[in-house]
């Protein structure tokens, strides 16, 4: 198989996926207000839509991973992108919140992009090159995050539904590109079972967590996901409260950080991980991230903040190294299954953590300690580093 066209497609897919999601971020409040005719109701329905997406992603991701092992990566990935495009069209044309809820739930149930992309990378890249490939995937993710909100804001100024049409067009463009360009990395074996034990989210996650090596890596991923979502959930509020940044300044800080992180992941992560190895790079990167979170908790000047953001970017080697390590622990016949379970774990964090972190942050403001939430993120990250450091770097049988 020619790896370059496949990896290029995955990079384009992740970029378009994040660009499409980023486009609609600035517009969701205006759209929901238009649909519901009431700001308070709009906030309620926005929360319901987000939670529904996360719950359905948790419920169905293990099944999608299993399907990717049984029938191949390509059909699952193209189906996921197609249904995401349909969801954006529904947002553009939907007459009411219940219509949006149905289609958004469908998109969450078919949100298999990350699951299949991670499995696909493991299929087409040798172990020594996986960290570099996963770093490039992370870079595409970051670039989409930078460009999406900017484009969404510009299009939303023309018409509130136009960004959703643009997001749908990008999704369908990805489908067309994949249909003609993407080769199948693993045709499937038709032997992989679709039992209830391995396809339901609780059973699939339990199977992964019970395995000695893979389970420890999954728990480490869970702790990192909690820290990551904690940071994402309160970051803009923290910048506004602690440093009195304007909305424009918040956007600039986030965009510059995301762009710098994308460049670092694309250019530096691969060489660093090749020198350190997956395990050492994962542990060191996670410890660096923990230090950045702890420092942010007590940062009091913009200069300190920018320095800590730079430190946090260095810590991004952990994500690619951990993903590379995970892909090497399991065999090619279960990459999709394991990645689906891990996506399910991440979906739990994305559903539960924002509410919890928001409540803790609001409580901390009563005591003028807005950085307290980042100490919690640092603690979870340190726990992840401990788990990684005590996990043997070996492959285990299924």
Characterization of the model:
With 398 residues, the protein is mostly helical. It folds into two domains: 180 residues, Growth Hormone, Chain: A (Up-down Bundle); 191 residues, MFS general substrate transporter like domains (Growth Hormone, Chain: A), CATH 1.20.1250.20. It is globular. The model has no long low-confidence stretch (mean pLDDT 84).
Descriptive tags:
Growth Hormone, Chain: A; globular; mainly alpha; single chain; 18 helices; 398 residues
Helix content: over 70%
Overall tally of structural domains: 2
CATH topology description of the largest domain = Growth Hormone, Chain: A
> How much strand content do the residues show?
under 5%
Question: Which series of helices and strands comes N to C?
Answer: HHHHHHHHHHHHHHHHHH
